[in-house]
Write a structure and sequence with these properties.
This protein is of the alpha+beta class. It has eight helices and 21 strands. The chain has helices at residues 140-143, 290-297, 308-357, 368-377, 380-390, 399-405, 409-422, 431-440; strands at 28-29, 41-48, 58-66, 70-75, 85-98, 101-112, 118-122, 126-131, 147-151, 155-159, 172-173, 175-180, 187-188, 192-202, 220-224, 228-234, 237-250, 254-256, 261-267, 272-278, 283-286. The strands form six sheets. It has a five-stranded antiparallel β-sheet with strand order 1-2-3-6-5, with no helix packed on it. A hairpin with a 2-residue loop joins strand 5 (85-98) and strand 6. Helix 4 runs antiparallel to helix 5. It is elongated, with a radius of gyration of 43 Å. The protein starts with 27 loop residues before the first strand and ends in a 26-residue tail after the last helix.
């Protein structure tokens, strides 16, 4: 009827690496089934760079193309006879259309660092898997029993030796950069500041980056921290970064000259030796604290000569420390006097009670000083031992037996609470239990009178005769 559609224009490009049929080692290789690009599974392998140096970080890439739903799959890691292969990064997944067939792609990267120059052979990768038959799939006729097997292609490359003009350390890379984090604008003598250095290499592994070190700095002490590394694999290349922090303490005020940092490396792009460098600025250091400033001011004086400010500055910490020591000693002495006064008063009350009750066996507790000092120090083991030793004979074996023999309810409750805290948590008595024990035993322990012995006629025979 005279109507027509608009023309369709299609641009036909050259064969891409994902198209099967070319003879290069980076091309997709057909599976072992038929050798045709229409197979349900095939493997593509490549290596970059194609002519690496010895020790250079080389990326071996595997791409698995599969056009069916897999039940299970295994992609064997190939072997290299000139260095070990280890996977870097994570698996990358995508989908492509190859000669009219849609494939899912699993891409995996491996790091290989040749150990010596010469021939480098990487064996062919092997894939094995299973799939369920699908009547709607274009690959259904070739699946058979659902088992799949694909064989890639082995790769052989030549590894170049290390150039004679290469520096030390040997660091072949696409690029290397040295950077330093911004330094503080205000510095004081005696106060530390940090210098953070970064090494970033393109085309290198983290193990290839040398350890970062700072040379000796005149008039300063350098304290390095352990370094950390990061390794990334992307777009068939490897990037690594090493970071290290240094704490620097300047001895005196004035100008601080920080040395430049350098790192020799081999430029793979231009195939020549190169040097990474970062210049550190000169810093102005202000005087430190009063004590530090006094020391700096008298640094040039002869031995034995010191100003009043220096003596005063150096004596401040000592005076403060002695003040705390004196205060602690006074508090301990007051607590000891209070316990001793309460103890003597308790002894007098116990003596009166003993005389009134006629209990001649009620004697003054032993190890009085040991218990007082143990309560002052607050040591659990010493307190428990002193309480057991303070009891009249026979000596108790544990604190619960001590509590059973105490006549004062407050002292009994304090011992039981103290004993309970020793068997809970971290085994240390709580401050509340210790304070309760000190309050209860501000007076001497009050022990129960021994039970009157029964007559021989009234006594029962022993339950367990000896």
């Amino acid at each position: 009827g005279g109507e027509k559609t608009a023309p369709l224009r299609v641009l036909v490009d050259q064969s891409s690496p994902s198209s099967a049929g070319s003879g290069s080692q980076t091309d997709a290789q057909p599976t072992a089934r038929s050798g045709n690009s229409g197979d349900p599974v095939f493997i593509e392998s490549s290596i970059a760079p194609e002519k690496p140096y010895v020790g250079q970080a080389t990326i071996y890439t595997l791409r698995l193309y599969y056009g069916v739903a897999l039940l299970d799959a295994a992609l064997d890691v190939p072997n290299g006879d000139n260095g070990d292969l280890r996977q870097v990064g994570t698996d990358e997944r995508s989908s492509v259309v190859v000669q009219g067939h849609r494939y899912d792609v699993l891409e995996r990267h491996y790091l290989l660092q040749p150990e010596h120059s010469g021939s480098l052979h990487i064996s062919a990768p092997v894939f094995q898997g299973r799939t369920l038959p699908d009547l709607n799939s274009v690959f259904d006729d070739s699946l058979g029993d659902g088992g799949l097997r694909a064989l890639g292609k082995a790769i052989d490359v030549q590894v170049r030796p290390r150039p004679a003009q290469a520096g030390d350390p040997w660091l072949p890379a696409q690029s290397v950069q040295l950077t330093v984090d911004p330094l503080p604008s205000m510095l004081r003598a005696g106060e530390p500041f940090s210098v953070v250095v970064h090494e970033v290499g393109e085309g290198v592994s983290a193990s290839q980056l040398p350890e970062i070190s700072l040379p000796a700095i005149a008039g300063a002490q350098v304290y390095p921290e352990p370094s950390s590394t990061i390794e990334r694999a992307r777009a068939g290349s490897l990037q690594a970064e090493r970071t290290r922090r240094f704490a620097i303490v300047v001895d005196h005020a004035g100008r601080l000259h920080l040395p430049d940092l350098t790192l020799p490396w081999w430029d793979l792009g231009n195939d020549r030796a190169a040097l990474a460098r970062v210049a550190l600025p000169q810093l102005q250091v202000q005087p430190g604290s009063v004590g530090q400033g006094a020391v700096d001011a008298n640094a040039s004086k002869p031995d034995g000569v010191a100003t009043t400010a220096q003596a005063t500055g150096s004596g401040l910490p000592s005076i403060a420390s002695r003040g705390w020591q004196v205060a602690t000693f006074v508090l301990a002495a007051l607590l000891a006097l209070a316990l001793a006064w309460g103890w003597r008063r308790g002894q007098a009350d116990s003596a009166d009670a003993s005389a009134h009750d006629g209990g001649s066996d009620m004697q003054a507790p032993r190890s009085t000083h040991a218990l007082i000092h143990a309560l002052i120090r607050g040591e659990p083991a010493a307190i428990a031992q002193a309480l057991c030793e303070a009891a009249p004979a026979p000596r108790p074996q544990h604190l619960r037996e001590v509590a059973q023999r105490l006549d004062d309810p407050a002292q009994r409750d304090a011992v039981l609470a103290f004993d309970a805290t020793r068997w809970s948590g971290d085994g240390l008595p709580s401050a509340q239990a210790l304070a309760q024990l000190r309050t209860a035993f501000a007076r001497a322990p009050r022990w129960t009178a021994p039970a009157k012995s029964r007559s021989h006629a009234d006594a029962l025979p022993p339950l367990y005769p000896e």
